[in-house]
Batch of 2 targets.
Target 1
Amino acid sequence: QVQLTESGGGSVQAGGSLRLSCVASGDTDNYYMGWFRQPPGKEREGVAVSHYYSGISSYADSVKGRFTISRDNAKDTLYLQMDSLNPEDTAMYYCAAQSSSRPFGGYLLKDPGSFPYWGQGTQVTVSS
């Protein structure tokens, strides 16, 4: 069983930065872990996904060059560094995990239903 706990959300002005953290309990060494977000009134969308052990990653076009997914295996923690934030990044951000039974690829970002493990979410609000 995998449990995920996010933290690090908050309110920032446009152009600012935040770093989200997701602490994972359970054996996630061979898991894909990702960040998803759900803006108000919209569907959940993939932001970034990474193979937890190897670090290979994929990003949504909307965040490429601004967001960076990384992990600290020693701390069992996944991060999302978010720079150059804009109001369109306002959303509830979720950490998610799934076993790496399928090939890695950007298609994982479009398939949140395939992730069985989710955190409770952390709110990010960006003001103009």
Note: The chain has no helices and eleven strands.
Target 2
Amino acid sequence: DVQLQASGGGLVQAGGSLRLSCAASGFTLDDYAIAWFRQAPGKERDGVSCISSSDGNTYYSDSVKGRFTISSDNAKNMVYLQMNSLKPEDTAVYYCNARRLPINYWGQGTLVTVSS
């Protein structure tokens, strides 16, 4: 079975850090572009960051640039999102996504709550 398993969410105070993990099974991440999305209550799902597992190129949305870092470990078939200097507006359910069009896999979300 193909699965993406996101984990690492939780409750943290503003200014704190969390590291999200995305574990892939049933396929190899290094053939895909991997992205983190987030969806806050009442809002659309937005892209946060992505990485090309083949060449390591990364992208960050303006709202997280300089605070979040995406990385991949192809040997472990894992992708991470290190989130520092968290703000209340980072509160959302975070999803990992693996894409190699037309293939598009989504993991279940992990909730990040940042208290002020």
Note: The chain is about 0% helix and 55% strand.
